User: Fold these one by one.
Assistant:
Number 1:
Amino acid sequence: METQALSPGLLHHAEFAAPPMAERVWVGIKRHVISLMLDEREVYTFDPEGRLWMAFIDGVNYKRGLDGRMVCKWVTPDRTRHLRRLTAEEADYVLRWSHQMAVQSARALPAKADPACRDALDRVCAWDVRAHHLDAQQFRQVYKPVSILPPDQYLALVLQVSEGCHWNRCTFCDFYRDRRFTIKTPDQLREHIARVCDYFGDNLRIRNRLFLADANALVASQKMLIPLLEVVHEAFPIEPAGLAEEELRRWRADHPVRFTGLYSFIDAFTGYRKSVQELRELQQLGVRRVYIGVETGCEHLLRFLQKPQTDDEVLRLTEALKEADIAIGVIVLLGAGGDRFAEAHVRDTIALLHRLPWGPGDILYFSELVEPYAGEYTHHARQAGIRPLPPEQMHEQRRRIDEALKLPRGVQRATYDIREFVY
Ligand code: SF4
């Protein structure tokens, strides 16, 4: 890997030899990250406080979540992509190894090196396995598990305005089965935000969006929701919409720590009841994009999945959102309904997606059904004699949907792999 690849936005760096560990060690500091590279063979990234964030060791990529979970992914010579969650012991091994590499690098850092690099390495060295464990414990006291986010929101600051899912019965989803649905009161949210800010401290500056979790915070009535969004505004500067370029520049200069907006999931089967006027109020309060688990345009398949929405509700919700100037992230569930629904799923999904009011800033996500993560779905499918689609047939479903759709400029199409997520 070339150090140039790590260098846009580079503030400080040092390069030195550290035999026998590495002939060339490179330390780089950017506003959001500390990087350590050994002989272009191993790369570690740490957050500005020194926690391990990502590692690349022997061709395998590791990513650590603040709750201590770690996932790894690698590609075999036949170009197959592999991905799995590490056991606690394996995660500790990666932490221990990365810590050793940081300690040895700090020892070898020349005395005349940029002092900012020494400070950064000292911060990293303070994070041994035990410090990571204690930190994960503290994180778990602040948050209920952050079960999932849309991929473009992985770096958002999550605020658990509500907990759980008010429906919680879709067979393929067990993200929130461990908790009852509740919406915080303004005081509870204030307390949650205080604890979130206390936990993140200076690390808040690496987050520039606010994600209103959990599954469907926006299901709350307007009467409950508006005071909650006002509490969010009390705590965080959120970029106002509709400012002229010069005004926006001034606003940004006055707010060095700021957030570009609010983001959230919304379900179509209750979301469609919000009027354009109500959605506009949310937009005025900073809601910029919402994510809708459309899954499929096939209503028979939706019934099989026990998701209670209709195509008409998806259409009504998305049209109202557009009128309110809120972008949409639409998630399609590839492989849903296996071989039994394969044809109807593709055909009806194309038909529904054709009717949606796409525009710049929208995202179409393709998420593959991952059976070990699919809760009751697998049991229901087996009972119904449905066979799962192998990965190549799910890719084929995506290809057919992709090819059939002519989306306007500015709409992104992206992969949503739930197995990759750690927060
Ligand atoms: S898919 Fe969405 S609505 Fe269904 S149970 Fe999961 S979080 Fe709730």
Number 2:
Amino acid sequence: MRTPTELVGEFRARGLKVTPQRVAVFAALEGNDQHPSAEAVFAIVREEMPTISLRTVYQTLNDLAAMGEIGQLELGTGAARFDPNTGPHHHLVCDRCGLVRDVSVGAGEPTPPRSELAGFRVHQTEVVFRGRCAPCAAATD
Ligand SMILES: [Zn+2]
Ligand SMILES: [Zn+2]
């Protein structure tokens, strides 16, 4: 994702509305590696800006995702998660608390056998490692 200042310019260039609420959403995402849901972004922004609506947060996230500035991930944690890191990477997902962390797989990228690809052209590979984060693994339930 570009910086909030650059995003303001990009939104204006595309004729999209730029409001202090939207800029606060950009700021909440900048450098955020928590893969927040829309509700989590809403909770962050509301601290500074109590008048913001969840609808505005959703609209801004949808606009950013449509522009390719953030990724929208469906990881089975109950809500879409948003990722300002658009570089190639994979995810660890805790099935107990919903924690999502970036991981790199590097040279070990999984590749299906050519015969199974049947001419399919892969342009992106996403690997999800599911399990429990350390605190959840130590929990007794
Ligand atoms: Zn966990
Ligand atoms: Zn990520």
Number 3:
Amino acid sequence: MAPDDSPAAEQRRFSRRSFLKGAAAGGAGAWAATTLPRWTFESDPHRPQQLYEYYLDNFWFESAGLYQERVNAPLKGRQRADVAIIGGGFAGMSTAFNLIRRFPEKRIVLLEGACCGYGASGRNGGFADVGMPGLRNIYEAHGPEAARSYYDATLLGVEQIRNLAREHGVDCDLEHNGSLNLATEESQLPALEAQKSRYDAMGLETELLDTADLRSRLRSERFFGALRDPHHAILNPAKLARGMKRAIEELGVEVFERSKVMRIEPGSPVHITTEFGELAAAKAVIALNGYAPQLGLFTNRLIPLCNYVVASEPLSASQLESIGWAGREGLADLRVQFMYLRLTADNRIVFGGETSPYFYDSSPSSGNYAPAIERLKRSLLVTFPQLEGLRFSHSWGGTMGFTRDFMPSVGALAGGDNTFYAAGFNGEGVVMTQLAGKIVAELVSGERPPITRLPIVGHQMPYVGHEPLRYAAVKLYEHALRATSGNPVR
Ligand SMILES: Cc1cc2nc3c(=O)[nH]c(=O)nc-3n(C[C@H](O)[C@H](O)[C@H](O)COP(=O)(O)OP(=O)(O)OC[C@H]3O[C@@H](n4cnc5c(N)ncnc54)[C@H](O)[C@@H]3O)c2cc1C
């Protein structure tokens, strides 16, 4: 079943009755927004009214040379394409990569509002985890064999990243160091054991580390045990994004940057209006993830949550020695609002997570939401007090697309056959978006190989409520998470 927040569904809903219902809900929302005290709605005072986060103090952008790079010209005038891809993140670029290799003769156009990698794809922690997200749901609903097939499918995402490096020279500082999933309390150790049993049942090798084992490899008293997963990797996400942009252009995709899409009109062809031009496309792919609600898509299905990251100055040899961590694994803890940290190629610590605020009416974040950034800086020193005095060089944030059941969704809009989408990567999209793009390319070309039968294909994203109820529900959930012993596990 396709989600019902598509352009076609939006059009169908524009009946008198729905207009009246919408007006009533809008009136209630407007009343609540103006009448309830200002503090009722958490808002980010730095956020400009535009589409994007403008605060660019992003270590990955800098290390990928993005500030020196030429950004492509926007789409201008009236043009036609065989396939239009909207959104130049990993999902859009993976779709383009898979389509152009199959159909080099077609005109495939990618429209990106800022520059490729500007969204979550160039801002994330760079954890290239396999098998996520939604793996546990699939395990619980369908058993270990189905979960293993899903896991194996995501390996195609990792393989694509390797292929980009091998065949297209995309160097993204990929390090196959595995990961440590950490318990921040002794009471969480059974959850690690349960996780290990699930992996055992799927036939996947992992290793449980008790407190002593763990502390011999990572000098932090904040953690009491870990599950080591050797399959995961870390990378520089902006280098991957900019490398993918170069690779798809070399293969023949036309990439228009600074081409913010203002309107998508369903039909045959699909009409796309950007700030400076128009595109009529036989087929279209919407790869906007957390930004989709800004175009009126998936408004009541996707929850854009914001997440923040800080980067330290490079650690000296003695600072590195003091924290152990010789394995350079990606680290994340078990809590629902978890922290993640990893080393960069030049030995900075990139540290993120712990809070994921939702801003009223699905707004993106400015990227410099001070409460989250300051909390991260304090939290890093709680994790490694021996690094007292460590200086931070960068801090930034980004917008992710969450679903109520934590499952991504890929498919055709409103059951049609010329507009497709990929969304809902739930903060774990580095590898999944590579796979999602492969699947969307199959759907666009009308092929139905086994990956198009994965449970995320056509998955109905559950309803998340209209505003202001959505805002209230997300805030209540956040409070409940904090209240439940402070540390409920994932
Ligand atoms: C701080 C942070 C940390 C994260 N850490 C990890 C991690 O370590 N590992 C992991 O697996 N996942 C992580 N994620 C999630 C991961 O980054 C995302 O799931 C993934 O990048 C989503 O890719 P995407 O292509 O779907 O969306 P995006 O990368 O968000 O791409 C959407 C693109 O659409 C463009 N756009 C928006 N509106 C318009 C418009 N109107 N017209 C044209 N273009 C438009 C945007 O500029 C953007 O480039 C993290 C996310 C954040 C924010």
